[in-house]
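subagent[fold] <- orchestrator: predict structure for attached chain, return tokens only, no commentary.
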Amino acid sequence: MNRLLNQFLFVGALLPACLITARDHRAEAEEATTSDTQSIAFLVCGDPQYLAEHTGKPTKLDPLSEQANQRFIERVNAIPGSNLPESVGGGTVSKKILGLINTGDLIDSLDKNGGDYPAMQRFEWKRFASDYGLNGTDGRIPFPVYEIHGNHDGPQGDTFIIKNIIERNKHRVGVVNLSQNGLHYSWDWGPLHLINVGIFVGEGEKRREDHHYAPRASLEFLRKDLSQNVGDSGRPVAISHHLHLDAPEYDWPAEDLNLYYETIKPYNVVAIFNGHTHGSPPKLRRWDGKRVRFDISGIDNYDPDDAGASKIHKGEPVGLSHGLLYVEILDRPGRDNDQMRVRSYATRDNWETARWDQLWEKKIQAPDL
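subagent[fold] -> orchestrator:
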């Protein structure tokens, strides 16, 4: 295993938009502690996919699912205040992490029916809820959690997990807007407006004919929320959903994807975060409304890879590669001197070891509010 790990090299998804020396990063980290500059720091993960043992009375998780998710939580707890290597700019991680966004597929089994699955689903959700908690004091994650649902949590958005997310939204830290159905929500961290819109952005409650998933009126919520809570302010916006932007058309109908792009195009969207993908280091691509690629201009789309989707399959270990994003926005006085940095953290051995991998950074506009 060690020989294989030593041979493995993480491949960079995209060169940083601009290069700043480690010395400059340390100076800016010190600046971020001053009263004139606000540091907005948070984490993004996806797809923990808690998987129970396959029995009608589960008492434990699949051993690799247990290992991945417990190690992930331990690493998340160790990140605040830790040192960053020179390869990603140096300095330290903020000690004031505002929250963890989880882009869905919280458990593994709710896209299946019958047999042992109902018992497995209940056990998996119980473990997710007790490990992650909600507000930073009721679980093992020491800061608030902002999750959405994925296809493994219920393809049509009508399962007991969706009901639990709706109930959690009533008590979630800082929520400023809830959708009419209670499932989608938004909140603010300083000038940054954040929006969680479920499995994907689409029109109507039910799935379109000949397509796969139900959007649960996420597009209607997104339109209304942007109009009411962002408007013409120019404030930066981050949007999270489960599916990736180049998902198959059967999963994300083309008409919904087009409406999504046209809805957000007038706004200052600085990041789209997705889940659903597995097995590759976290990456940054860009979306121009037609394509999602590394080498084009457009809206930045960050994929954190999965947090813990490991299991024993046909006697063999699968899904040992995982990832996480650390996002920091430096909000300086004025609107033209602000900066966003996203660093990736990745593993190839089920979080036994991990490394800081990539740094992506850019100037952004964040008006004083």
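orchestrator: received. Logging for downstream: The chain has seven helices and 16 strands. The first strand starts at residue 38 and ends at 45.
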